[in-house]
Specification:
The protein is about 20% helix and about 40% strand. InterPro entries: Anthracycline_SecMetBiosynth (IPR052164), Glyas_Bleomycin-R_OHBP_Dase (IPR029068), Glyas_Fos-R_dOase_dom (IPR004360), VOC_core (IPR037523).
Length: about 120
């Protein structure tokens, strides 16, 4: 049966704009580029991908969501606000974490997350 998650993927509309957001704004490092149609980022042994290939999925806030774990939530939030990234959910605390949710250029939700110790 299922052994692991192979990848998470977000549909996007503009590859250059999305790569700038994920690489320059969020600091992800490019792992694999399949013809500028499917881009993969390795994150701690997992794969996050963006694609502008047609799979019948629509970019935007009503789709899936991913959470990226960060070392310092306050510092990351300040950097994102400085870069004028739109916030869907301002920083908040739950019993197990601190988090905020931003939007990528297509409106996909990206959670910035810090687990409590």
């Amino acid at each position: 049966m299922i052994k692991s998650i192979a990848f998470f993927v977000y549909p996007i509309t503009d590859m250059a704009r999305s790569r700038k957001f994920y690489e320059d704004t969020l600091g992800l490092k490019l792992d694999t580029n399949f013809g500028d149609k499917w881009i993969e980022y390795d994150i701690a042994g997992g794969t996050f991908a963006i694609t502008n290939m047609e799979f019948g999925h629509q970019p935007g806030a009503k789709g899936g969501a991913i959470a990226f774990e960060v070392d310092d939530l306050d510092k990351t939030v300040a950097q994102l606000k400085q870069k004028q990234v739109p916030f869907i959910l301002d920083p908040m605390e739950t019993p197990v974490c601190h988090m905020a949710v931003v939007a990528d250029p297509d409106g996909n939700s990206v959670t910035i997350h810090k687990r409590k110790s």
